[in-house]
Specification:
The complex is a heterodimer of chains A (325) and B (255).
Chain A lengths: L2 E4 L6 H5 L3 E4 H7 L3 H10 L8 H12 L3 E9 L4 H11 L3 E6 L6 H15 L3 H27 L5 H9 L8 H14 L10 E7 L7 H7 L2 E6 H6 L8 H7 L6 H14 L4 E7 L8 H7 L4 E6 L7 H14 L1
Parallel strand pairs in A: 1-2, 1-3, 3-4, 5-6, 5-7, 7-8
Helix pairs in contact in A: 2-4, 3-4, 4-5, 6-12, 7-8, 7-9
Chain B lengths: L1 E6 L3 E7 L5 E7 H8 E4 L2 E4 L13 E6 L6 E2 L3 E2 L2 H13 L4 E6 L4 E7 L2 E7 L8 H11 L3 H4 L14 H13 L4 H22 L4 E5 L6 H11 L2 E3 L7 H12 L2
Parallel strand pairs in B: 1-6, 5-7, 6-8, 9-12, 12-13
Antiparallel strand pairs in B: 1-2, 2-3, 4-5, 9-10, 10-11
The chains are: A alpha/beta (325), B alpha/beta (255).
The structure holds iron/sulfur cluster (SF4).
Chain lengths: 325, 255
């Protein structure tokens, strides 16, 4: 089956409808045995130092995987750097299909974008709806995992992150992913309680360093809400595919995203929010708005390279946890 | 005796406190401290306190903080987060409960908002040492003056724009060539520190700023902050020991 790369979550139903395998390039990059090596490879190819590492990682991921001949690039609603990423990929002979989330969440425009994608991959609405049903079966179980995360003390923030973030492409095999999920969920009742007093919400793009969740738990705080990752699971009750991707908050403006965050702060009784911002990302600017609009304590974390938490970040996390105690 | 140790990046500060809360303060060069007085035992740092030359002390409890605690745990010590140590120290030394703490150390800058004695929010510098003691030392060396002299000037500063500690030196040399007086150059250097911490101070503003860390000995900077922000600036005695004093206070309280 043909593989097709994604730069972020898009209506993945269309790809499954076409009988293709979606590959979220971010996941492949970050799970590489040497992700920093991929960043450096992109820099050697000419990518500037002061550009977000996710972009560079995605570039090298496509270059290294010859079986990814086509990439769907989100040119609006995500990263402006994706434009240039697309151009360098075109230069390297990769087929690129652009996808744009309309800034104002306009229903008709979004529908048009989805239909253009369907046309490019040669699928009908009926096929897409069938795929949606197929994926929703899996999504519902991930919602359950998320619910258990904040209603019980057993599921770690990392597992919550991992299963939800995987919903951008379902690891290329929804049924297999669903099976692994079921096995995990079956184990939950017997898992030991995680003993932490502090409930943290995480917002922003997924972290580029993978030890954040573990470190927090070691210090007595636990992530019970992963904003973007949860959005990847389409936690909305609608059969209308266009509406589903219109409710999906990540690609739209910060104010719409904050409505979701505010609701979850209350619902999940969060003590504080960690706002993660990637170095050199335009979303860093939005931190101003986040700080003004949310009325819980906020720690803004900046991540740069795929790596472990650095000493300064750990110091900041320690102080934040201490502050929430 | 209760001891607080602040394992800083440049210096290790030790504060000893007795039951009557009398303090004695000691400072060691960080690298020399680890080399001469520390040894590793099962991945923990054991410090030979007797060997520090502090006299005979009977230690009741030991609390540590600082950069070192991220990599090495001090044996038999309770570790507390750095910002907490500084806040505890500043509250203890000033008796204040509502203020903004500005701590400028060897390589770090921190601003913390304290309200009713509790930490409310904080900011730290990231991956850059341009507002710290190290930067001031480098700039003083370029001007061939000592820190004492550097900290005297705040009037009529030259405008320095570089945000990088290293490029800053080049820019400063350029200004020397242009013929500015040492007083103007020194004032310019002090102003660059202010410019860097100003956004943090404004974000976490209070009418009173407690200024600590080694850089708090810079009188010119104190004057600049006072004038530019129209706030009261308080520098406790021995401002560079505030973190270790916070640790000692914690050691005393928790026994
Ligand atoms: S983190 Fe920001 S800069 Fe990086 S790819 Fe995502 S949106 Fe773009």
């Amino acid at each position: 089956m043909e593989k097709i790369g994604l730069t972020t979550t898009i209506p993945v139903e269309v790809i499954y409808a076409a009988g293709m395998v979606p590959v979220d390039l971010n996941n492949v990059f970050i799970n590489h045995h040497n992700p920093q090596g991929l960043v450096e490879e992109a820099e050697l190819a000419g990518y500037p130092r002061n550009i977000c590492s996710w972009i560079k990682g995605m570039y090298s991921t496509v270059m290294q995987n010859d079986d990814i001949g086509t990439v769907i690039a989100v040119t609006q609603g995500d990263c402006s750097n994706t434009h240039a990423l697309m151009e360098t990929l075109l230069l390297a002979g990769v087929r690129v299909i652009p996808f744009a989330f309309p800034f104002d969440r306009d229903y008709d425009l979004l529908k048009l974008q989805i239909e253009k994608l369907m046309e490019a991959l040669g699928v009908s609405w009926q096929q897409v709806k069938d795929a949606q049903k197929r994926l929703n079966k899996v999504r519902q179980r991930v919602w359950e995992l998320d619910r258990l995360t904040w209603q019980q003390n057993k599921i770690s923030g990392w597992d919550n992150h991992l299963y939800q973030v995987s919903c951008s492409d379902f690891n290329g095999d929804p049924e297999l992913f669903g099976q692994q999920l079921d096995e995990y969920l079956a184990k939950v009742p017997d898992m030991p309680e995680i003993e932490t007093q502090i409930r943290i919400g995480y917002m922003g793009v997924p972290p580029i360093m993978d030890d954040l969740y573990h470190y927090l738990e070691e210090r007595g705080a636990r992530v019970v809400y992963n904003e973007t990752q949860r959005q990847f699971t389409m936690p909305f009750n609608t059969d209308d595919l266009v509406e589903q991707y219109r409710l999906y908050s990540y690609p739209y403006g910060i104010f719409y995203r904050l409505e979701d965050v505010q609701q979850q702060i209350k619902l999940r009784r969060l003590d504080g929010i960690i706002h993660y911002a990637q170095s050199f990302c335009y979303r860093q600017i939005e931190d101003m708005i986040v700080r003004q609009r949310l009325d819980v304590p906020i720690l803004t974390l900046e991540g740069d390279k795929p790596n472990k938490l650095d000493a300064r970040t750990r110091m900041r996390l320690d102080a934040f946890i201490e502050m929430l105690r | 005796m209760f001891a607080g140790i602040d394992l800083g990046s440049r210096n290790v500060k030790v504060a000893l406190m007795d039951e009557k809360e009398r303090l004695s303060l000691h400072k060691f060069d960080t690298v020399a401290f680890y080399r001469q007085h520390g040894r590793l035992e099962d991945g923990q740092l054991v410090v030979d306190l007797a060997g520090l030359g502090l006299g005979a002390i009977e230690l009741k409890s030991l609390v540590s903080t600082g950069y070192g605690r991220q990599t090495i745990n001090l044996k038999d010590a309770k570790n507390i987060p750095e910002i907490k140590a500084h806040v505890t120290g500043a509250v203890y030394l000033t008796g204040l409960k509502d203020f903004t703490l500005l701590d400028l150390g060897g390589q770090d800058s921190k601003v913390v908002k304290i309200s009713k004695g509790r930490m409310m929010d904080f900011e730290t510098n990231d991956r850059c040492a341009a507002s710290t003691g190290r930067y001031l030392e480098n700039m003083a060396a370029v001007l061939d003056i000592d820190m004492e002299e550097l900290s005297r000037h705040y009037e009529d500063p030259v405008d320095l724009t570089s945000t990088c500690a290293i490029f800053g030196e080049t820019e400063l040399i350029g200004k020397v060539v242009e013929g500015y007086s040492t007083a103007q150059l020194a004032a310019g250097v002090n102003y660059t520190i202010f410019k860097r911490v100003k956004p943090m101070l404004i974000k976490l503003a209070s009418p009173t700023i407690v200024f600590t860390g080694g850089v708090a000995q810079n009188r010119a900077l104190l004057e600049i902050i006072r004038q530019e922000l129209d706030v009261e600036v308080i520098v406790p005695e021995n401002p560079q020991y505030v973190g270790s004093i916070g640790c000692a206070v914690t050691a005393l309280k928790e026994v």
